[in-house]
Amino acid sequence: MSAVQRHAVVAGAGIGGLTAALALHRTGWRVTVCERAPGPAVVGAGIVLAPGALRAFAAIGFDVSGAVGRALPTAMGLRRPDGRWLTRTDTAVLAARYGGPPLAVHRSALTHALTAALPAGTVRYGAEVTTVDGADTFPVVRTAAGDLGGSADLVVAADGIHSPLRRRYFPNHPGLRHSGETAWRTVLPAAASPAGAATAETWGRGERFGVVPLADGSTYVYATALAPEGHRPADIRAELMRRFGSWHDPVPALLARIDPAAVLQHDLYDLAAPLPRFHRGRLAWIGDAAHAMTPNLGQGGCQAVEDAVVLAHLLDGAGTGGVPAALAAYSAARCARTDAIRRRARRAGRIAALTHPLAAALRDLAVRATPAAVAHRAMDGLFDGFTLPARREGAPTGADARW
Prior knowledge:
This protein is an alpha/beta fold. The protein has helices at residues 15-25, 51-59, 64-68, 91-98, 107-116, 164-169, 236-244, 251-257, 288-291, 300-315, 323-352, 357-369, 372-383, and strands at 7-11, 30-35, 46-49, 75-79, 85-90, 103-106, 123-125, 129-133, 140-143, 146-147, 154-157, 176-188, 199-203, 207-213, 219-226, 264-271, 279-280, 283-285, 387-389, 400-402. A seven-stranded mixed beta sheet has the order 5-4-13-14-15-12-16, with helices on both faces. A six-stranded mixed beta sheet has the order 7-2-1-11-18-17. Helix 1 (15-25) packs parallel to helix 5 (107-116).
């Protein structure tokens, strides 16, 4: 580490941005996080942290279960609208295969825990990053609340799926592509959550419904449907009941308990093409800003966490002069993995959203007929693909350090 403390500016206080801030802070950086929202998020949805993301958190010494609690559902899987299971996996099997099962938590609980682990005043709210000049030298960051003052040694663009910094520095990139679907998401408080609900996603024809019990006793509920961009029903509950009200228990009961005002609706997008790299000089992109993907594999937030930890790992020990080279190594380490998952997520969404009765029936039959061993191998790249690449300075023995 340089004798002069290096300064990093992170644009965005989502899961990826806060993880990057914490990882950098714990390797000796002074960090400023600039967030456009006026304050910490109080609403939101759930997130399932895959074993790879949990190992990434462990690599920086952040105890997720200690911060937000641990839920251990006995099983998770896919169902049909009549309730019949297409596939079901015991989480003990996942724990044995990957060193631990996934962990389902409320997004706001996770962001609050990450913020609390940072020095007071690190996160500046109401300070959207509007411009980053001089990325190839020492970048100067300007926000809606005014200049930060002086230059930074590093800027991390964690500014989300519509990333202004991505649009500015990759002006010829085709941008986002609509998947053809819209999604509704909400979290039922523990008092309104049904007892014994299983972690499951149910596939219909062009529609899906997910139920995920969270660590704090609440229940994350989500639904997707094929719909044109901008489709916004006037009565959300009526729309969801029309689509899913006849599906298996506990779907109708969950819909009866939702607060329509707390339901988030977003059209689903991913990048139309991969970025050529995730860096420019001293500016690095992470998460949705770098590789926006549809949520079909539940990997968007998980890959943001992996990005953040790998980035900080490669910067550790690089010194101020070595930042551009460390960012180039970060691009090399992360571009191929995240783009493979982005493409896989889109393919999974197309399969899950089949509408023709025969096509959907054949899909369901194929899922049921797939041997468990084959299904588990298909998850390996998602759950067991996190690696810390060798650093230029102080590199561990071997090409990779696997966690």
